[in-house]
From TrEMBL:
Keywords: Cell membrane, Disulfide bond, Glycoprotein, Inflammatory response, Membrane, Receptor, Signal, Transmembrane, Transmembrane helix. One of its GO terms (cellular component) is plasma membrane. One of its GO terms (molecular function) is interleukin-17 receptor activity. Residues 118-271 form the SEFIR domain. Gene3D superfamilies: 3.40.50.11530. Homodimer; disulfide-linked. Heterodimer with IL17RA. Heterodimerization with IL17RA is independent of the cytoplasmic tail. Associates with non-glycosylated IL17RA constitutively. Binding of IL17A and IL17F induces association with glycosylated IL17RA. Forms complexes with 2:1 binding stoichiometry: two receptor chains for one interleukin molecule. IL17A homodimer preferentially drives the formation of IL17RA-IL17RC heterodimeric receptor complex, whereas IL17F homodimer forms predominantly complexes with IL17RC homodimer. Pfam families: IL17_R_N (PF15037), SEFIR (PF08357). InterPro entries: IL-17_rcpt-like (IPR039465), IL-17_rcpt_C/E_N (IPR027841), SEFIR_dom (IPR013568). This is Interleukin-17 receptor C. GO terms for biological process: inflammatory response. It is found in: Cell membrane.
Length: 323
């Protein structure tokens, strides 16, 4: 701080501090920093702590250090921060049960958010019958509630009609694999028959032999080369519904990737879907239980003998909304 000392007749002198607003008298009541520290600066000047820069008969110019006053101000700020931290810690101790519950919810949100930003999935299946399509729609809807991003031809009939099954599948597969996603092969008696037909003949069926919305038949021209050339691990996962298909019915070629039984192996299925950054086991178990509860009514309906009356079973609302 620069201090200007002005000398008058009869040894009268006045001292002011140079500030952007002008030269402020040290003992004034102005609201500037120099006025607030006026007495301390005057004591520093009288005790020889200030450096004289210029002197003559009319006055002098002094430079006084301000470091110690700045340090004192920051010390007060740190003291206030420590006091606030102590009060906050005390409140946390008094309400630790509420804090634990809040942290638990926060972890759930983090894990859910990681899943939402994680893998997308393309679900491929053979449309064996209306009951199996309803079961697939229930599975896809349940996976979306985890949340995961699921693409399935059951919800994309307009795009399939406009683009064709093969073009739609190639576009979905390319996008999902570029995002680090995974393709789910859902095996059923119809899917196994199509795979065996391809493996034996090496060519696809004639156009129109399958329903125009059947993306599984169209996808085999790309899926099988991935398996034959060793590109499937990490990109594909297989699954089948217990009671609808015997485990040994899945062709050996597809055993290069995990082929899991649903709903008994749902935790492993969800863990594989989420990839390397899978959530903790407790989180997966809870989600697997939810998916299992959603699947069971639709699966029971598929296991009913032919001609048995179904009651209280509807397609998952999410599937209907997206058709």
């Amino acid at each position: 701080m620069l201090l200007v000392e002005t000398r008058g007749p009869q040894d009268n002198r006045s001292i002011c501090a140079l500030e952007p607003s002008g030269c402020t008298p040290l003992l004034s009541r102005a609201s500037t920093r120099a006025a607030r520290l006026g007495e301390q600066l005057l004591q520093d000047l009288q005790s020889g702590q200030c450096l004289q820069l210029w002197d003559d008969d009319l006055g002098a110019l002094w430079a006084c250090p301000m470091d110690k006053y700045i340090h004192q101000r920051w010390a007060l700020v740190w003291l206030a921060c420590l006091l606030f931290a102590a009060v906050l810690f005390l409140l946390l101790l008094l309400k630790k049960d509420h804090v634990k519950g809040w942290l638990r919810l926060l972890k759930e949100d983090v894990y859910s958010g990681a899943a939402a930003r994680g893998r997308a999935a393309l679900l491929l299946y053979s449309a064996d019958d209306a009951g199996f399509e309803r079961l697939v729609g229930t599975l896809a809807s349940a996976l979306c509630q985890l949340p995961l991003r699921v693409a399935v031809d059951l919800w994309s009939r307009r795009e399939l009609s406009a683009q064709g099954s093969l073009a739609w599948f190639h576009a979905q597969r390319l996008q999902i694999l570029q995002e680090g996603g995974v393709v789910i092969l859902l095996f059923s008696p119809g899917a196994v028959a199509l795979c065996q037909e391809w493996l034996q003949d090496g060519t696809s069926s004639t156009p129109g032999a399958h329903r125009p919305h059947d993306a599984f038949a169209a996808s085999l021209s790309c899926v099988l080369p991935d398996f034959l050339q060793g590109r499937a691990p990490g990109r594909y996962i297989g699954a089948y519904f217990e009671g609808l298909l015997h485990p040994d019915a899945v062709p050996a070629l597809f055993r290069a990737v995990p082929v899991l039984a649903l709903p008994s192996q749902l935790p492993d299925f969800l863990r594989t879907l989420q990839g390397p950054g899978a959530a903790r086991p407790g989180w997966l178990s809870n989600r697997a239980e939810r998916v299992s509860r959603a699947l069971q009514p639709a699966l029971d309906s598929c296991l009913l003998p032919p001609g048995t009356q179904e009651t209280g079973l509807e397609m998952a609302p999410e599937a209907g909304d997206r058709t």
